[in-house]
Amino acid sequence: MLEALSYEFMQNALIAGILVSLVSGIMGSLIVANRIVFLAGGIAHAAYGGIGIAIFTGIPIFLGTSVFAVIAAIIMAFVTMKQKENIDTFIGLIWAVGMAIGIILVDLTPGYNVDLMSYLFGSILAVNREDLYFMGALFGIILFVISFWYRNILAVSYDSEYASLSGINVRFFYTLILILSALTVVIAIKVVGLILVIALLTIPIYIAQKLSSSLYSMMMISGVIASLFTVIGLWLSYSFNLTSGATIILVSAVSLILFMLLSKLK
Amino acid sequence: MQVFDKDFLVLIGPNGGGKSTLIKLILGINKAKKGSIKILNQSPKKSFSQIGYVPQNTNVNINFPIKAIEVVMMGHNSNRPPLFGYNKEEIEHAMSVLKQVGMEEFAHKKIGSLSGGQRQRVMIARALCANPKILLFDEPTSSIDTDGQKQVYELLRELNKTVTVIVVSHDLSVILEYATKVAHINKKLAFHDLGSVRKEFATNDTHICEVELLQMLGRCKC
Q1: How many cross-chain Cβ pairs, A to B, lie less than 8 Å apart?
Q2: pLDDT score for B81
Q3: Which partner for B116 in A78, B42, B79, B144 could form a disulfide, CB atoms 3.0-4.6 Å apart?
């Protein structure tokens, strides 16, 4: 592992992995606490449409996917607020339609270009400097927004009825949480991919939830745990030549099982 | 109907009779079609900061990772909150209201680890946090056991020394012990001042038979 770190691609992979772990620890806590895991999953899959658009029009992948994912998040927020009774139906709908748009647009793009699997399952070793800058910028935005509006986000997440009575714009903050989730998904694309991101947004958080008494500490602990999983997963995938995203997820899952067994024994 | 400073008003009535609607009117969620509601001579929307509201269901989001004190601090409505986090005065004030409801030692406990009655107190502390003139309770005892109920009502009596208390309740039997005014809502509103009736009726700790109570309230034609 140590000699591997002398390669630039490995350094980039490590930085990207830790960046993604921290952001998914923070946003995952918010997503789990708000019980919108499947909403976030829907946005993650729908974001594939953004990849299709980016490939079709030739704009940078990160940019195309960010814009598309944010639009999907806003539609998701709007629909779930209007159609409270049918939330699951609409999540499934947006989930599939977004992916379908992506697939069709890739079909329509002349010539075969990119390895699509890498967007679905991640390709952490292909992260370059430019990707890192983009991921870092998104991370900065998410961090700033959450710390700036932490109180309101906390109030809306815990008790939205009371929050709205005390004059907080619940719809705005609900939409904001979904938009931030969308950006998180985009950051995670290169590392674990669109499909596996949901595991990174839930497994470390589940463990952290048992160990923390506030949302803030849950975010911190999740970030640390996720980083640990990512580094171990990355090392295993490098040593045994496995797909990094899937390795990270399996490391997390095995750790979760161990954690649950240990807490049972106590 | 008029409610004055330091009254203890209880709203009773059957389901669907309009109790919740009245609460929504007071809180300014709904607008009155006829007539008007003035709270401290202002319209309800403007006066929310004067009302401390304790909702019926205090078991929302039990698993949410949040400390009791953080829930209380949601009650703060300063116009200029600090840019990040909470400032020192807010934390001190939150601790002092937690003390008022006897929950200061639980301030850093996770909300989900508290009992129903304890959680109710935390919600009352949240309502007290903004220094309201009126406290409004929607079924304050619906989710806790009898012992807890008595404690909550004792607490309400204590708080009633400084603020006006309005309680929506099904629990007729406890009303007489604590209330000074009763309003019965079933589409129409019947309003009783309990000051005069109470003298005829020695209340002790035992629960009062609801039939007797209704008879007694029926006797005065207001």
Answers
A1: 67
A2: 61
A3: B144
Residues 6+ apart with CB under 8 A from A18: A227, A230, A231
- Domains, chain B, ordered by start: 8-219 (3.40.50.300)
As beta bridge partners, residue B193 has B181
Give chain B's residues under pLDDT 70. Answer: 1-6, 14-17, 29-49, 58, 77-85, 141-144, 171-176, 186-222
A144 and B CB contact within 8 Å: no
The alpha carbon dihedral of B21, B26, B27, B30 has a sign of positive
Q: Is some CB atom of chain A closer than 8 A to the CB atom of B74?
A: yes
Helices (DSSP H) in chain B: which residue ranges? 19-27, 68-73, 88-100, 116-128, 146-160, 172-178, 194-200, 210-219
pTM of the model: 0.84
Q: Is residue A246 part of a domain?
A: yes
Using DSSP's 3-state secondary structure scheme, residue A223 falls into: helix
Domain of A190, CATH number, reads: 1.10.3470.10
Q: How many domains does chain A have?
A: 1
Residue A203: domain span: 3-261
Task: Answer yes or no: is the ipTM higher than 0.95.
Answer: no
Q: Could B74 and A163 be called an inter-chain contact, meaning their C-beta atoms sit closer than 8 Å?
A: yes
- Confirm whether A266 is domain-assigned: no
Neighbours of A242 (CB within 10 A): 14
- In sequence order, the β-bridge partners of residue A120 are none
CA distance A99 to chain B (A): 32
Q: At what angle do helices A203-211 and A193-200 cross, to 10 degrees?
A: 10
Categorise residue B8: left if φ over 0, alpha if ψ from -120 to 50, beta otherwise.
beta
Taking alpha carbons only, the member of B18, B12, B54 closest to residue B168 is B12
Q: Give the residue from B158, B147, B205, B156 showing the smallest Cα distance to B177.
A: B205
> Could you tell me if B139 lies within 8 Å of chain A, comparing CB atoms?
no
Which candidate, A71, A98, A83, A92, places its Cα nearest to that of A175?
Answer: A71
- Give the pLDDT score at A204: 94
Q: Which pair of structure tokens corresponds to residue A171?
A: 């719809």
Q: Which of A162, A207, A209, A220 to mutate to test the interface with B (most CBs of B within 10 A)?
A: A162
DSSP string, B133-172: SEEEEESTTTTS-HHHHHHHHHHHHHHHTTSEEEEE-S-H
Least CB-CB distance to B65: which of A162, A163, A218? Answer: A218
Please give the average per-residue pLDDT across A80-87, as a whole number.
Answer: 85
Provide CB contacts within 8 A for A74, sequence distance 6+: A175, A178, A179
